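@channel anyone free to eyeball this complex?
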Amino acid sequence: MACELCTHLETPAWSVVAATPRLHVVRVLDAPDFPAFYRVIWNTHVAELSDLSDADRAHAMDTVVTVERALRDQLSPTKINLAALGNLVPHLHWHVIARFARDSHFPQPIWGTRQRDSDLDALARLGLALPAIDERIAAALAAS
Amino acid sequence: MACELCTHLETPAWSVVAATPRLHVVRVLDAPDFPAFYRVIWNTHVAELSDLSDADRAHAMDTVVTVERALRDQLSPTKINLAALGNLVPHLHWHVIARFARDSHFPQPIWGTRQRDSDLDALARLGLALPAIDERIAAALAAS
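replying in thread with the prediction:
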């Protein structure tokens, strides 16, 4: 079965924010409770972080931190959540998610039990900040 | 409120496997469905990966990969799951978890919905492999 991250990098499920020769950064569009949700997707089909060379791993983690810093600086979230799971799609990708104390699942992981309804006003405010975050990530990757 | 990772590194919830001057590696003992579950805990109280210097971040991620490689080599898991969440305890720590296609939650994250009962024989076999994994991690950190 073809890997969907190898074959469908363009999808309505996300917006491609930036790329380097080795990876893409996308903003997730199909998790409405979590607008400030990005992924760093390694271009070649490897499953695990330890499959990368040291230099490639450094590039991947530098990029994860670039996204994290953009989220922290623009949103001052309660917490950043980082995860490389890949149980459903074993092609290396990092989730980088800004979490807030009153979001729908906090303090549970986004994959855990919902704690409350999302605050629609808060989601709308978050939405307004996303273009600046996208731009900052793109600028940082272009300069790296 | 005191941070529990600052004050209670010795706890029945895990076994300390190895340490460097900057971090500890522990094996989690209170997640019975997931025996091959380790954490890399940064010693000083920082919340986010991006709070570390480049050198410290490299040390943290090198250690995460050391644990990942020990799990892969000894267990050939279906997938490794990595996560730095910290919503409940905002003190930087990485979860490094060996996942198997028939474990209790696969392909869901361990924080997601249970999919089936754990296979007790499989858990028992996993348990037998853990001392060798602990030793390998300790040896790798001692040599680094």
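from a first look: Residues 8-143 of chain B form a domain with the HIT family, subunit A fold (CATH 3.30.428.10).
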